[in-house]
Amino acid sequence: MILLIMGVAGSGKSTVGSQLAVQLGWTSLDADDFHSPENKAKMRRGIHLTEDDRIPWLQAMHAELVRLDGQKENAVLACSALKKSYREILAAGLDLRVVYLKGSYEVIQQRIQERHAHFAGTSILADQFAMLEEPGDALDLDVTLSAKELVAKMLAHYGLSPCASASSGDAVIHRLLWRLLPFLFLLYVVAYLDRINVGFAALQMQSQLKFSDAVYGLGAGIFFLGYFLFQVPSNMAMQKFGARRWIAFLMILWGGISASMMFVGSARSFYTMRFLLGAAEAGFFPGVIYYLRNWFPAAVRARALALFIMAGPISGVIGGPISGALLGFHRRAGLAGWQWLFLLEGIPAILLGFVAYFFLTDRPEKARWLSADDLAWLVSALRSDEIAASKERAAPAGILSMLMNVRVWGFSFIYFSAVACAYSIGLWLPTAVRALSGISPFVIGLLAAIPYLAAAIAMVIVGAHSDRTGERDWHVALPAFITCFALAAAAFATTVPATVAAFTIAMAAEFSMMGPFWVLASGTLDAKTAAAGIAFINAIGNLGSGLGPYWIGYLRTLTGSFRGGLLSIAVLLFLAGFTVLGIRQTRVTRTVNS
Question: Which of 214, 228, 378, 564 holds its CA 20 to 30 A away from the CA of 142?
Answer without folding.
Answer: 378
